[in-house]
Request: fold
Amino acid sequence: MILNLAVFLCTLTAMEGIGYLAHRYIMHGWGWFLHRSHHEPHLGALETNDVYLLALALIAFALVAIGRAGHAPLQWVGAGVAAFGVIYVIVHDGIVHRHWPFKPRPRNRYLKRLYKAHLLHHALKGRDNSVSFGFLYAPPMRRLKRQLRERRRQS
Ligand SMILES: [Zn+2]
Ligand SMILES: [Zn+2]
Reply:
């Protein structure tokens, strides 16, 4: 049980790193054609960017299925991936972008910090020059703002 929990928590933590890299180098790289919808004025409840969420769900589902078919503890890796997806949807879609009919507010310091950091991610238009690619960890505001000033000068 302890081992399973450790696998789950390690996966959840690792997913933040993987998510950061995927956002920075795939979604703002060759995958921009899908992510672009997320950086434009919002039209409906769904956007092509949600394809990434669908891919994440499929990966989590596959890992759980393989784990349960006898390759333990892969199902706990899958659970960690799924948990990252759920937290991401709640924090990013719900609290930061308010895509839902009810609009939860960032109440504690951690959520406020994520909220501000992600608004900085959307501060510059287009695929290049963005800052703050993480989802569940935000570097200090000072650092993000300095990066943003530098990128503004470059663009
Ligand atoms: Zn982005
Ligand atoms: Zn966003």
